[in-house]
Amino acid sequence: MRATRDKLLHAAKSLCTDFSSKKDPDTLMTHFSTTFQCTAYEHGLPILAPFLGRPFVGRDGVRDYFQIIASTLSFERMEFSEYIIDPEVQKVSVKGRAKFTWLSTEQSWDEIFTYVLDFDDDCKVTDYQVWADTGAAYLASRRQLGAS
């Protein structure tokens, strides 16, 4: 049975709340499917950051993605808005914003990003995609953010 619009919205908001609350990867994994192979994919060139441009496949892969994010970046003031729910294809898109810091260089930037989340019939995420400012992340990693 297909998930309703309200259930999809609740599931998406729950994941976003846990992520913005800096929950650990194991807690985040409670939002992901155990019946379908799940994938995390952050769009961008793999050369720019260790979490970009490659699929993190399966529950272990998705957990690795969140661990890499946590060991590379910190963030503050993360908030989500403009949830777009399509119950026909069981997909939710959402806009996020936060101030990110590349941990090894301590360079920070404000960013607006987008998640697209696909869900199974149990309202668990099967595919997690992110579009973000990969250029700012790359420059921050090289301590060149704001350099002229």
Describe the overall structure.
There is one protein chain. The chain has 148 residues and is α+β, with helices and mostly antiparallel strands. 29% of the residues lie in helices and 35% in strands. It has four helices and six strands, in the order ααββαββββα. A six-stranded mixed sheet has the order 2-1-6-5-4-3. The longest helix has 16 residues, at 5-20.
Protein topology:
Elements: H1 5-20, H2 25-28, E1 39-42, E2 56-57, H3 58-72, E3 73-86, E4 91-102, E5 107-119, E6 125-131, H4 134-141
Parallel strand pairs: 1-6
Antiparallel strand pairs: 1-2, 3-4, 4-5, 5-6
Briefly say what this structure is.
The longest helix has 16 residues. The N and C termini lie far apart (55 Å). The mean pLDDT is 96.
Silhouette: globular
Kindly name the structural category: alpha+beta
Q: Classify the beta-strand content into a percent band.
A: 35-45%
Segments where pLDDT lies below 50 for 5+ residues? Answer: none
The total strand number stands at: 6
Largest sheet: 6 strands, mixed
- Counting DSSP H or I runs of 4 or more residues, the number of helices is 4
> How big is the Rg?
15 Å
Instruction: Give the % helix.
Output: 25-40%
Mean pLDDT: 96
Which series of helices and strands comes N to C?
HHEEHEEEEH
C-alpha end-to-end distance = 55 Å
**Order of neighbouring strands in the sheet with most strands:** 2-1-6-5-4-3
